[in-house]
């Protein structure tokens, strides 16, 4: 019983360390994007390893709040952002 508890504790520590490493690794680029679509607007922040990934993720997250349905989400994602503010990496 004691050995299994030790292995579970080690696995938990390894998992937490992996999560911390993954989170810190992806903060090379951080951006806030504001999108206006069909009279509604939203701003969201995202972090990623590349500029394009950060920009796309922030845009998609903002569009998820203001677009309804897949067609609107895709159209919103193709809309030029109202504003882009780089918080780190650029």
Main traits of this protein?
single chain; about 90 residues; alpha+beta; three-stranded antiparallel beta sheet; about 55% helix; elongated
Give the overall pLDDT as a whole number: 87
Approximate strand percentage: 25-35%
| Overall geometric form | elongated
Radius of gyration: 19 Å
Q: Helices and strands: which structural class?
A: alpha+beta
Q: Which segments are poorly predicted (pLDDT under 50) over 5 or more consecutive residues?
A: none
Tally of alpha and pi helices: 3
Q: Give the termini separation.
A: 52 Å
Order of helices and strands: HEEHHE
Strand arrangement within the widest β-sheet reads 2-1-3
Q: What is the helix fraction of residues, given as a range?
A: 40-55%
Largest sheet: 3 strands, antiparallel
Quick one: how many beta strands?
Answer: 3
Provide a descriptive summary of the structure in words.
This protein has helices spanning 2-25, 51-66, 69-77; strands spanning 29-37, 40-48, 83-88. It has 90 residues and is α+β, with helices and mostly antiparallel strands. The mean pLDDT is 87. A three-stranded antiparallel sheet has the order 2-1-3. 54% of the residues lie in helices and 27% in strands. Strand 1 and strand 2 (40-48) form a beta hairpin.
Topology:
Blueprint lengths: L1 H24 L3 E9 L2 E9 L2 H16 L2 H9 L5 E6 L2
Antiparallel strand pairs: 1-2, 1-3
């Amino acid at each position: 019983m004691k050995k299994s508890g030790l292995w579970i504790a080690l696995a938990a520590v390894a998992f937490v360390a992996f999560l911390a490493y993954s989170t810190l690794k992806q903060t090379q680029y951080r951006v806030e994007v504001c999108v206006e679509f069909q009279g509604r607007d939203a701003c969201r922040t995202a972090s990623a390893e590349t500029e394009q990934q950060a920009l796309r993720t922030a845009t998609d997250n903002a569009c998820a709040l203001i677009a309804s349905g897949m067609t609107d989400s895709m159209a919103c994602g193709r809309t030029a952002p109202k504003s882009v503010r780089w918080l780190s990496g650029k």
